[in-house]
Amino acid sequence: MPPGSPPVAAPAPDASAPSPPHQPGLLELFLAFAKMSLAGFGGVLVWARRSIVEQHRWMTAEEFNETFALCHFLPGPNIVNLSVVFGSRFRGVPGGLAAFAGLVGPPMVIATVLAALYARYGDIDVLRRTLAGVACAAVGLLFAVVFKMMMPLLKRCDVTGLVILAAVFVAIGLIRWPLQIVLLVAIPLSLAVTILTRRMVKA
Amino acid sequence: MSSESNPVAALVWTFGLMSLFAVGGANSAIPEMHRAAVDVHHWLTDKQFADVFAISQLSPGPNVLIVTLIGYSVAGVAGALAATVAMCGPTALLAYYVSRFLDRSRDARWPAIIQAALVPLSIGLMAASGLIVAQTSDQSWIAVLITIVAAALAFATRINPLWMLLAGGLLGFAGVV
Q1: Which of the residues in chain B have pLDDT under 50?
Q2: Surface of B (60-79) touching A: CB under 8 A
Q3: What pTM did the predictor assign?
Q4: Do B102 and A107 touch (CB under 8 A)?
């Protein structure tokens, strides 16, 4: 998909379905990321996937997986990376900045206000109980996203992928081996397996 | 009120450097943040750090906002801004250049292979952090039940997940969790 549709801003009045792969504009990027960010209690990934894949259909499930996986393995906060990569893919540097600003700006204001409130009212028990309840539901949402992201693998019957997925889960989640060591082993392994299976498919 | 020579500069330096080593996202950098903020710089006490972590998990926005909160408690609004930009800026730039590089060589085989190879790892990692978070948040069987129901609803229906968070909050408020 070439990112360069003509830059002439000709907003069709009451846009009656633009060309199928709809290209979000700067404001649209900012607002979309602000929205998913503000909805993102306990992590934005849930909302990012919902917004990008399910609502706006800016990416397919596979494209989203691959883009997110890349951002996951670059250092730094991965949703922040995703916003920059995603925004700039559609609108170059300004797009990346717009998505980034939408993602980080509004919640930063809220977090700062919360920090100030907490400094005064942090000990209120009701608040803590409520937050604990939200946390339980938030974890559930995270698991739902994990299952959704697994669907493309399941549909393809990608057994090796699923085995690697499970191995990483066990190593980090259950055995609690250090992340760096697991990645040091798992990344070359997964690369090798991917290359091998592609060769076998070709042959 | 810490009167270190320049707390804002210390924040920028600490988090700017940390972001480049935080592979696997903000949550996997939590132990390192704890070391820097509590053990090295004495910006926060242990309990304050735990509370800041809880707030960051439960306020909207990316999890990296824990850095905003640490910055705020060190040097007010300026500290919040400085810490956030330091934590996000360098890696955002890196991500931008790497993805542009991969996009340009779209037809080459390697980028596609690398990305495809990373997908199962990425999902496995997220499942693991889900489990780790669940072990701290789900302390009762009702809490576990809430998590399971929320996961099932979010997976199988198109209900807006905000309702599930709201329901969780109400149950917590009522003292059920």
Answers
A1: 1-3
A2: 60-65, 68-69, 72-73, 77
A3: 0.73
A4: no
